[in-house]
Description:
Blueprint: H1 2-47, H2 53-62, H3 68-71, E1 77-85, E2 88-89, E3 95-96, E4 102-111, E5 116-121, E6 127-130, E7 134-137, H4 141-157, E8 165-169, H5 171-180, E9 184-188, E10 192-196, E11 201-205, E12 208-212, H6 214-222, H7 229-246, H8 250-253, H9 256-264, E13 267-269, H10 273-285, E14 291-295, E15 298-300, E16 306-308, H11 310-320
Parallel strand pairs: 1-8, 5-14
Antiparallel strand pairs: 1-4, 2-3, 4-5, 6-7, 8-13, 9-12, 10-11, 15-16
Helix pairs in contact: 5-6, 5-9, 6-7
Amino acid sequence: MGRMAKSATAKQEAKRPRRRRRWLWYLFWTLMGLFGLTLGALLGYLSFAGEGTVRRAVVAYIRGETKPENAFPGKDRITVLIVGADENRDRRKRVVETAARTDTIVVAQFDFKNQRISALSIPRDTLVRIPRHGWGKINAAHVLGGPQLLVETVSQLLGNIRIDHVVIVSYKAFEEAVDALGGVWVDVEKPMHYHDNWGDLHIDLEPGLQLLNGKQALGYVRFRHSDSDFHRIERQQKFMRAVKERLKDPSVWLKAPNALSAALRHIRTTMEYEQMLALALFARQLPDTSIRTETLPVRDGRGTNLLVNREKARELLQELGFWDDGYLSYAR
């Protein structure tokens, strides 16, 4: 009896490794099958991707080109001047390719080391010293000397900060990027109605949460006809938070390369496609608490001019990390 019991026990113990090996093989082939399905779906998706933008994005991601340390070698942080420009039109209301006044001015610092983004909006009516042109509203700098003069003006205004890159966004770029994402959900806070036939601007929005298409979104961020430029800046900042929230949806995130490609057809920038994608990926993975948006402190001046509140501006620039370098100081 003892021998028989031992023999049965030995057989059971011999079966266990076989079962384990069998389960390991089942697991292995299941994982391989899932990998094959995923890879097949990905290759199929890439094969039908329009303009190769998705393919380019995936290749950049696989090669690590969208990592900040590779997209911006040797940089712990970069500062980007983001500008929304008005459209100039001729007598027939056609858009003409000339330097226009800037409708939106934002200085954004992407801090890779400390994992944060700080964005500072500058009101368009801020009175500044424009190099080689004297005093004027900051939105005139682009008209007087193009992007280079605008960079000089903004840098000087903020204490000679270094601006690494520039992105100039046209209305068309904004509209097409929003449409490529399938729209953006925004809680419109009040009725907004305005019509400018000459500027081809038509805004008709009612209050409430709604999915805005490109034209509607542009009207939302440009509207300021029953309030002030400060309210418009608040809406622009609110809209950017809504875009970030929208990109958390995986199905929408897959559209990001096409949205970026659509925008690139109508923007001017000093960055490569992979660098802009790297910034989008960096922003997407940050919690909302690590992204701070502020407006340059100003006070009323003569007429419609706004004057910088130097003391508050100094404190804010230091808080946001723009003045981490000891030699920087506020422009006089």
